């Protein structure tokens, strides 16, 4: 059965009718319906079997329904026949417009593309039934975007409709596309979308300089590598298609200037390669070329993809420092050259037109010993101190050239001075030689081979001549022989040498060099007679003539010496251990007078008592010259007072007396290392206040005047009154 969708009449729409062959026309048969939508969407007349759709249907929601119908007895509801299944299909109507689900669209196509170049394709969908009718049959068309693009009506492929579209003229295009159902006929529904087409760049434009002539100026003293100016060739293309490389293809400054490409700014940077000189050339002309790096062969006919421009560079004058005639100087001088002699000369000039005079000087940091001087006007270098090639062969100094008119303009040049050798050193032995001669040696035997050395350095190398002193030419014991390697061999003339008769022989040898004039020196070789075994190996060179008669061998003497040393070590250890066993110098607590107070209940006898102390000590301090024993310690070793101290002279200062006693205490080996009581039995003299003792007073009480006591304050007032009363009574 079929039913149209979207039907919305006032009455339910009749879908169809069911009828059974068992129906005689009576009312005993009842029709029932079950399945999809039975009772809710579809109803059946239980008497007639008519099926009606009671709701609005939408094919896009559900396209067909499966139901089951059956005839039953009206009264008993018993089936009269098996159930029958049938399908109700919803017929489509054009109720859905086409839709572009992926829109809006974006696409790119290279500029300058040929006609018909594919850009992209779009797709629209229609929810209507594509099988029944033309409700879902779509046709595509372009509403906006002509005449640049076209579209295939059925496949929706968009293509270029014009050839050689130029990105530099217009880069983006907006295309409106329509999709219409019903095959595009009238009454069909339609939907639209937009397509943005962007033309991508190709290298179809050559670079072009903004101006044909560029002017730059540069000072002549500019640093090498400095950027002098920039030139730029514009290119309408973008990205790598606009990249250009710059070169200097012609001009009179190709060797002095260079040009590099700046990839970011897309311009050329002109830099200085070599120094400029205003006085030599004041301007330069360059021809600069800019060429595309990436060239598309499809557009080579549009070429050439390059452009040229002229660059004029003007050199400006600048105050330049002096220029030396050579970048370095090498001078040679003999080591015996006279002082103040000229050893060489440097020259420099001011390259400026003004040509300022030059003053020369030596950088003393390179000539700390001031061995050289230079004439400030003409640059002549002279010798200031003597040279010695053997101490230093090379001297490297720096000469400074300064413009007199502008002291800030300074140049420096290194000067290497080589000291040439002269024969001023006599040859001598290469080392301190000491030869050994065996007593049992044979005549003609080589005792020692010696070589010589010379601090000088002749061009042809060293060649030495050896000889004996004239008075020793006929030496009975030894002779010499010159070797090919410039060394000398000393040979014995006879055998039978005896060290007991003569232990040492001295052999003076004259060594001469081959210099001009030749120099010579005398070196003495010491030859010691030794005892040797049968193989000629030295055993002993000591004189044993005075030892052997005693009957003691060398081994016995060594044993005796070892025993003596052992005994000395034992004695030293014994004394050391005994010292460690001594009692400590610090006194016990009960004997420390600093911590014990001894009380005596005796009253002194005053000035009349002459038994409590030695009056002579106070009356005559000059007479004390004895040793006062220490009472605060008990010394283990008896300390003897030092003799020889002169008696204290009359009028000695107390300071000196105390220093003497302090010296004795410091040198006392029994003194403890702590503060102790020192007894000084001495009363000083020469005090301004006078002596406080009346033992030596020659005046009597009657001669005393005690009026001054009243001036001592309230505490001495009473005492002053007593003495004052005594004086007045005497007068009365």
UniProtKB/TrEMBL annotation:
State the Gene Ontology terms under molecular function: beta-catenin binding; cadherin binding; calcium ion binding
Bilayer topology term = Single-pass type I membrane protein
The alphabetized UniProt keywords are:
Calcium, Cell adhesion, Cell membrane, Cleavage on pair of basic residues, Glycoprotein, Membrane, Metal-binding, Repeat, Signal, Transmembrane, Transmembrane helix
Which SUPFAM superfamilies does the UniProt record give? Cadherin-like
Which Gene Ontology BP terms does the record give? adherens junction organization; calcium-dependent cell-cell adhesion via plasma membrane cell adhesion molecules; cell migration; cell morphogenesis; cell-cell adhesion mediated by cadherin; cell-cell junction assembly; homophilic cell adhesion via plasma membrane adhesion molecules
- Cadherin domain sequence ranges: 20-100, 101-209, 210-324, 325-429, 429-551
Subcellular location(s) per record:
Cell membrane
Q: Which GO terms describe its cellular component?
A: adherens junction; axon terminus; catenin complex; synaptic cleft
Transmembrane residue ranges: 546-575
Q: Which domain of life is it from?
A: Eukaryota
Report the protein's function. Answer: Cadherins are calcium-dependent cell adhesion proteins.
Instruction: Please state what the protein is called.
Output: Cadherin 8
What organism is this sequence from?
Otolemur garnettii (Small-eared galago)
């Amino acid at each position: 059965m079929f039913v149209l969708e979207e039907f919305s009449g006032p009455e339910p729409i009749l879908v169809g009718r069911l009828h059974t062959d068992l129906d005689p026309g009576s009312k005993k048969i009842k029709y029932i319906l079950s399945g999809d939508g039975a009772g809710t969407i579809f109803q059946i007349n239980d008497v007639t079997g008519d099926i009606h759709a009671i709701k609005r249907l939408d094919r896009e929601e559900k396209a067909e329904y499966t139901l089951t119908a059956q005839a039953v007895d009206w009264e008993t509801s018993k089936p009269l026949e098996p159930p029958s299944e049938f399908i109700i299909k919803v017929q489509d109507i054009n109720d859905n417009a086409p839709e572009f689900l992926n829109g809006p669209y974006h696409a790119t196509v290279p500029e300058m593309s040929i006609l018909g170049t594919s850009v992209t394709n779009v797709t629209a969908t229609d929810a209507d039934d594509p099988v029944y009718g033309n409700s879902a049959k779509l046709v595509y068309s372009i509403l906006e975007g002509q005449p640049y693009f076209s579209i295939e009506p059925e496949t929706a492929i968009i293509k270029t409709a014009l050839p050689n579209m130029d990105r530099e003229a217009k880069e983006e295009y907006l295309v409106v596309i329509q999709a219409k159902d019903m095959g595009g006929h009238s009454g069909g529904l339609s939907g639209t979308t937009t397509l943005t087409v962007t033309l991508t760049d190709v290298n179809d434009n050559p670079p072009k300089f903004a101006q044909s002539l560029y002017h730059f100026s540069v000072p002549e003293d500019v640093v090498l590598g400095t950027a002098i100016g920039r030139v730029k060739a514009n290119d309408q293309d973008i990205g790598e298609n606009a990249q250009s490389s710059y070169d200097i293809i012609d001009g009179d400054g190709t060797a002095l200037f260079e040009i590099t490409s700046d990839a970011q700014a897309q311009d050329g940077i002109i830099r200085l390669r070599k120094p400029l000189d205003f006085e030599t050339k004041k301007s330069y002309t360059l021809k600069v070329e800019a060429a595309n790096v990436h060239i598309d062969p499809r557009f080579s006919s549009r070429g050439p993809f390059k452009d040229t421009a002229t660059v004029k560079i003007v050199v400006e004058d600048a105050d330049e420092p002096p220029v030396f005639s050579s970048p370095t100087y090498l001078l040679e001088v003999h080591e015996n050259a006279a002082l103040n002699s000229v050893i060489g000369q440097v020259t420099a000039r001011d390259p400026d037109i003004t040509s300022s005079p030059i003053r020369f000087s030596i950088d003393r940091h390179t000539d700390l010993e001031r061995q050289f001087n230079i004439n400030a006007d003409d640059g002549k270098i002279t010798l200031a101190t003597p040279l010695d090639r053997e101490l230093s062969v090379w001297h490297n100094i720096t000469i400074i050239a300064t413009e007199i008119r502008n002291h800030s303009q300074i140049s420096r040049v290194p000067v290497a001075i080589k000291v040439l050798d002269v024969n001023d050193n006599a040859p001598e032995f290469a080392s301190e030689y000491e030869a050994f001669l065996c007593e049992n040696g044979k005549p003609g035997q080589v005792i020692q081979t010696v070589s010589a050395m010379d601090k000088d350095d002749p061009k042809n190398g060293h060649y030495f001549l050896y000889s004996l002193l004239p008075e020793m030419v006929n030496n009975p014991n030894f002779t010499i022989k010159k070797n090919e390697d410039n060394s000398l061999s000393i040979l014995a003339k006879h055998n039978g040498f005896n060290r007991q008769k003569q232990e040492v022989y001295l052999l003076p040898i004259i060594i001469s060099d081959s210099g001009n004039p030749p120099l010579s020196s005398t070196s003495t070789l010491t030859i010691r007679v030794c005892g040797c075994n049968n193989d000629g190996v030295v055993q002993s060179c000591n004189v044993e003539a005075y030892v052997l008669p005693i009957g003691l061998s060398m081994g016995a003497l060594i044993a005796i010496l070892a025993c003596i040393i052992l005994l000395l070590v034992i004695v030293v250890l014994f004394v050391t251990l005994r010292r460690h066993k001594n009692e400590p110098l610090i006194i016990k607590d009960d004997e420390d007078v600093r911590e014990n107070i001894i009380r005596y209940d005796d009253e002194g006898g005053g000035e009349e008592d002459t038994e409590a102390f030695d009056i002579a000590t106070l009356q005559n301090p000059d007479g004390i010259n004895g040793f006062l024993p220490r009472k605060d310690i008990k010394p283990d070793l008896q300390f003897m007072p030092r003799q020889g101290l002169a008696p204290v002279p009359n009028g000695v200062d107390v300071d000196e007396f105390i220093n003497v006693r302090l010296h004795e205490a410091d040198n006392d080996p029994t003194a403890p290392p702590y503060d102790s009581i020192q007894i000084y039995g001495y009363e000083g003299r020469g005090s301004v206040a006078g002596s406080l003792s009346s033992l030596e007073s020659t005046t009597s009480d009657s001669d005393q005047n005690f009026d001054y006591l009243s001036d001592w304050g309230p505490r001495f007032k009473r005492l002053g009154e007593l003495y004052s009363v005594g004086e007045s009574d005497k007068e009365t």
